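May I ask you to comment on the folded chain given beneath this request?
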Amino acid sequence: MTKEERVRGYLGLAARAGKIESGEFSVEKAVKSGRAYVVYIAGDASENTRKKFGNMCEFYKVPCYALADREELGHMIGRLYRASLAVTDPKLAKALISLEEQS
């Protein structure tokens, strides 16, 4: 199983458990309130979105990764299009971060 397939599995699990915030406003709120443990941004998100979340995550010390495109990122969590999402479960986030650091 590839790293990306495992990440997809964890994100799907987090979505089913209700431990995902998605959409620009919800993700920003989760990061600023300290509920976000890891953030994913779609690779085809606008430059402004990537910069905004990159800077915000750096400031609040939340790991931030690029993954797939907006359609695929949304599909992973059972939605249509999502440019950003945040995992709000510390154990799932820890597993995702360890997967990202392996590559």
